[in-house]
Amino acid sequence: MSATTTQSSGVTSVSYSFVLKWTPKAKALNELYKNSGATGVRSDLYQFKTAKDLRFYLEIDNDILDELSIYIKGSKMWSFELVYAFLVSKDRAFVLETSDRLSFLNLYSSTHVSDEEDVTIHCVVNACPARPASSAKEVDLPLMECQNTINFEGVEDITYPSNYTNEMVIDFIRKGDIPNFNIDQAIKIISETNEHKCETLRILCLEYLIKNITAQSIRKISKAAIDFGLPVLERKCLEQIANGCLQIR
User: What highest taxon heads this organism's lineage (predicted)?
Assistant: First the structure.
């Protein structure tokens, strides 16, 4: 005797995750930081052609606490979440929208970056379909003079050495996942920079080590600073000793 069963399957929800890099002018950010009445700084308008009405941009503004805040503005047909956002300039990184794994970064301030410097903002945005009220009207997203529309359809071609196996680094490059650092891991990632070529992650590791200089860790961290040519980290170690904050054990 045989029995016939009917099998059904389907997709109940679709969501997207975007790893973005944006290069605003440091001067515009510093003016915004110093003047709450200044016009917000916007990214380009991102438009994902594969998904209906999926478009958004990022905007940095001066909030009521006179700190910079970053927001997502986009279609009402989609719900957006800013997972994190941090800014990189030269060999330093500063947070704009924090997450637990970026708690070692200092908040951005206009004293951190000169007007002439180049800055890059790295962030991850999640998008999932929303259920707006039937009476809700679609949001108009007019472009400012400085904005362009960036249309994209699929996954960018991301490359790294085929024999490279550090999953924390690969997940950061591919998905924007911030590693759950410890001191040994951060030093290891820095030591492998010539292999993975991810300068941004090297800088995050550097910031993590700066934040975790203690009496127990300073020998290991200062050795890494010398071995891998990290003058900022070496200087921070020396400052801690000179200021009497640490007694080397």
Answer: Eukaryota
Read off the pTM.
0.87
Quote the DSSP letter at residue 138: P
Q: Let me know if residue 72 belongs to a domain.
A: yes
Whole-angstrom Cα distance, residue 47 to residue 85? 19
- Residue 94: count other Cβ atoms within 10 Å of its Cβ: 20
Measured in degrees and rounded to the nearest 5, phi and psi for residue 184 equal -65, -40
Question: What's residue 1's pLDDT?
Answer: 42
Please report whether residue 4 resides in a domain.
Answer: no
Residue 206: Cβ within 10 Å count: 23
Q: Summarize pLDDT for 174-187 with one digit per residue, the tens.
A: 899 999 999 999 99
Helix, strand, or coil here: 148? coil
User: How many structural domains is the chain composed of?
Assistant: 2
| Domain enclosing residue 29, as ranges | 16-152
Count of alpha carbons within 13 Å of 133, Cβ hemisphere only? 3
DSSP symbol at 70: E
Kindly state whether residues 56 and 116 are assigned to the same domain: yes
Q: Which residue intervals of 74-182 are DSSP H helices?
A: 167-175
**Position 8 in a domain:** no
Instruction: Note whether 21 and 123 are same-domain residues.
Output: yes
Whether residue 105 is found in the same domain as residue 206: no
CB neighbourhood size of 247 (10 A): 8
Q: Identify any residues that bridge with 240 across adjacent strands, giving them in sequence order.
A: none
Which residues are CB-contacts of 26 (< 8 A; sequence separation ≥ 6)?
89, 113, 114, 115, 116, 117, 118, 119
Same domain, 128 and 26: yes
- Name residues of the chain where pLDDT drops below 50: 1-3
Phi, psi of 2 (to 5 degrees): -120, 150
- Residues 217 and 182 occupy one common structural domain: yes
